[in-house]
Amino acid sequence: MTSHTIEKSLILAAAPANVWAFLTDPDKLAIWFHRPDNALTSPGPFSMPGEDGEPLVWGEVREARAPSHLSYSFTARPMGGHMTEVTWELSELEAGTRLRLTHSGIPAGAEAFGLLTGFDGGWDRHLLSLREASAAD
C-alpha cells in the first residue's frame, strides 16, 4: 500500500524550549491543538478527547528528546484506527526556532484523498495557532 507524507516548516519567534512546551505540555497543546490526557515527554500512549469526551486523536509517543525531537504514532477518528507517524524537529535560530513537521503514512488513493487534504489543511490551521500562541508566550 502506498502512502503520503505531509511536510511543513516554519520559523517561530520563540526559543526551542518554549516551542517544545507547546508540543508536549497538555495546557499549551490545548491552546493550539487538542489537550492530551498526559504530557508527551516520554514514551507511552496518549489520547486527546474531542468535545464529546471520546478520543478524537490518539497514539503513542515513540521518542521525546527535549527540546529537539518528538515522534509519535497518530490516528484520528476518521481513520478507523489506521496509524500514521508524526515527527517534530526543532532547531535553534538567532532569536527563535525552525520547526519541521513530518506526518507520514497517510493512506494514498482516491478513497483516502479527503484524509490527505483534511490533514494538510488542518495542520496549516493548527500551525498558525501555534505560531501566534508561542510568540505571545
From TrEMBL:
Residues 14-132 form the Activator of Hsp90 ATPase homologue 1/2-like C-terminal domain. It comes from the Bacteria. Pfam families: AHSA1. This is SRPBCC domain-containing protein. It comes from Gymnodinialimonas ceratoperidinii.
